[in-house]
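For the sake of clarity, the format in which proteins appear in this thesis is described at this point. The fold follows as a row of integers, each naming the local backbone shape at the matching residue. One such record is shown here in full, so that the layout can be seen directly:
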Amino acid sequence: MHPPPQIREVHHAVTAADGEALSLVECAVIGSPQAADGPVFLLIHGFTGDREVFTRGPLPAALCRLGARVYVGELRGRTQESKDRTPGSIHSYLTLDCQAFLGFLARRADSEGVHFVGHSLGGLLGCHLLQHDGLASLTTIGTPLALPRFAVPFRRLAPFATTLLHALPRSYHLPWNRLLNAISPQLCAADASWPTRQLRQWAGLANPHNANPGALKHVLENAHAESLALLVELIEMLSSGDLQIRGSAPLEAVRSSTVPVAAVVGTWDSLAPPYSVAGLEHGKHGGPRRVIAVHASGHFDLPLGHHIPAIAEQLWDFLCDAQPEVPRSIQQAARG
């Protein structure tokens, strides 16, 4: 497998409504012509992530070569300077950060709208932005639209966890990143022993055979701590039983929208397995829907993997030239 082509990053200064300075990076493939008027894609990372979840992988380059103008946004709290200001939360990500990114890109997308691509939590944010006038499509990558089965037993503990967390200082950050940092060598070792391989598949977080192991390890080693506010919101979502955000469930938002929606899932992903997006294949939807399952892919290699160029071509045909259709069955992609 060849490493992803080198990306040239152009940084744009974007300011949220509360004055927070946000990072938005425009991507281009070095040595290739940049599209002047192609579709605009906005890529948003997930929990503990930053823009390198995408820029370390082949997705920006693949989209650029298809003719897209690609921008990768970073949510607040990714820098040391921003952690002590307005804490990262679903509410601030939706109403401040994503609104600022979409407002900035609206002038570039004109009437065509912005194609929103979100990994994990980023995809959930996209589901609740579907009513935004400027959205042309939504692609979720490793995003559950329904509560994964493993989370069901923890629902009873959610009220107690919320009570305990409210007693912590507002500035507290969940050190989830330390766990990812610690286990990254085992998750990303291509020559791991049999017990480690079995543990890796059971955890469903990463498969180094599906992505560049160095890029995967870098992303996990540089994961970010998340704010207390976000953790409380996630636990409250868990206790609701259907991942409700601001009073509505992601699947309800998807069904009521008329724009094309695609879900990319990994068959090894324990956080967003294929059955967690099965709702896209059932019931009535306002627009065309597509589900793409990537064989043997975990949660973090899903946006970074060798399968991405082929997935990007499928998405391009669907998102940019989509016609209303009956939702397709889950298809297998990039076997082996």
User: Anything to note?
Assistant: The two ends are 12 Å apart (CA to CA). The chain has twelve helices and eleven strands.
